[in-house]
């Protein structure tokens, strides 16, 4: 049993991990994957805006409510990116694994650099006067 577990762990490379019992690759995000991803994401952008604009005295209540609503969205995103069935993810994959998978996807695709590069392509907007 130990040898099977050891082989399972050591056989992973930096672009692989397990979601539940299923081994997945952290893939490059192609245009096709981006389109699938944006077709899937429905509530997440609105939830993010609500949290960012929440009154400070209710901030944590907004975060908890948004987190609860976002769980399904996160599972859908992981399903699209990994190719694993959504129901399997709901029943067998912990939120920690889902967040780790998304973090590795961001890292593999250098989305932090992509965001900065896209921002550098946009014209500088004048700052609002205070």
Could you explain the architecture of this structure?
It is a single chain. This protein has a two-stranded antiparallel ribbon with strand order 1-2. The protein is globular. It has helices spanning 2-10, 31-40, 44-52, 59-82, 86-92, 95-108, 111-121; strands at 16-19, 22-25. Helix 2 (31-40) crosses helix 4, helix 3 packs antiparallel against helix 4 (59-82) and helix 4 (59-82) crosses helix 6. Strand 1 and strand 2 (22-25) form a beta hairpin. With 130 residues, it is mainly alpha-helical. The protein contains seven helices and two strands. The protein is 65% helix and 6% strand. The longest helix is centred in the middle third of the chain and has 24 residues, at 59-82.
Q: Care to give the gist of this entry?
A:
Helix content is 65%, strand content 6%.
Content-based structural category: mainly alpha
* Radius of gyration over C-alpha positions, nearest whole angstrom: 18 Å
Q: What share of residues is helical?
A: 55-70%
Q: Biggest sheet: strands side by side, in what order? A: 1-2
- The biggest beta sheet, please? 2 strands, antiparallel
Shape: globular
Q: Quick one: how many beta strands?
A: 2
**Which residues form runs of ≥5 with pLDDT under 50?**
none
**N-to-C terminal Cα separation, in Å?**
66 Å
Instruction: Spell out the helices and strands N to C.
Output: HEEHHHHHH
Mean pLDDT: 84
Q: What proportion strand?
A: 5-15%
Q: How many H/I helical runs?
A: 7
């Amino acid at each position: 049993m130990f040898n099977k577990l050891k082989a399972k762990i050591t056989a992973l490379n930096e672009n692989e991990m397990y979601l539940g019992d299923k081994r997945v690759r952290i893939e490059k995000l192609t245009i096709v994957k981006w389109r699938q991803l944006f077709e899937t994401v429905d509530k997440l952008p609105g939830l993010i805006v609500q949290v960012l604009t929440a009154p400070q005295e209710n901030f944590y209540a907004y975060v908890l409510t948004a987190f609860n609503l976002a769980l399904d969205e996160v599972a859908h995103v992981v399903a699209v990116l990994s190719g694993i069935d959504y129901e399997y993810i709901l029943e067998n994959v912990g939120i920690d694994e889902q967040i780790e998978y998304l973090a590795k996807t961001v890292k593999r695709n250098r989305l932090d650099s992509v965001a900065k590069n896209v921002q550098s392509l946009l014209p500088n907007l004048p700052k609002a006067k205070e």
